[in-house]
Amino acid sequence: MAYLVALMVLIGLLSALNLLLSVGVIRRLREHSVELATLRSGGTTSDRGLLPLGDVALPDGSPIGEFAAVTVDGESVTLGGLGDRPLVGFFSPSCTPCKEQLSAFVEFAASRPGGRDTRLAIVVGTSEESAETVERLSPVTTVVVESEGGPIQKAFGVTGFPAFILSTDGLVAASHYQLHAVIDRDAALLSATR
């Protein structure tokens, strides 16, 4: 009988331990789910805390900071030199969502009116790791390679990748981590000017 009581106590303790571990695992899985959703959306954590989905650059209506950079072709580029309604894209060669949206950006940039000089792509990384991305972007857009936290990223307030920004009159007209959101705003602005 004593063995039966000891066995029941042991089973009870093991069950309580199992329950405690299960609660801890479930809580950690919830934390990971939030972090994973943020990373997939291109959002990051910063000194402002966890950014809302889509908030990877300056919000709509914000003034864009001044910048000057040199393209991969050796030419100078500034925001003012990109025309009336420039499209800007930020990519990182190590970013999976960047790779997924790169083809759509190239396709849209090739079909967008205004020519190559009204589009700017910033590839964040070293020249070696950025070479393939630069090669795909160069035929349809002006390309700059800069290191993490570079001057163009600071001017646009970029905190995650990819980031797509549409500018009008030195202000952000649209910014998002999904290209289609910026394409929709670009189409609306184009039809409003006709």
From TrEMBL:
Q: Which domain of life is it from?
A: Bacteria
Tell me which PROSITE patterns the record gives: THIOREDOXIN_2
Q: Please give the coiled-coil regions recorded for this protein.
A: none
Instruction: Kindly provide the name given to this protein in its UniProt entry.
Output: TlpA disulfide reductase family protein
Q: List, alphabetically, the Gene3D superfamilies matched.
A: Glutaredoxin
SUPFAM superfamilies xref list: Thioredoxin-like
Q: State the organism of origin.
A: Nonomuraea indica
Record's InterPro entries?
Answer: Thioredoxin-like_sf, Thioredoxin_domain
Q: Which residues form the Thioredoxin domain?
A: 58-194
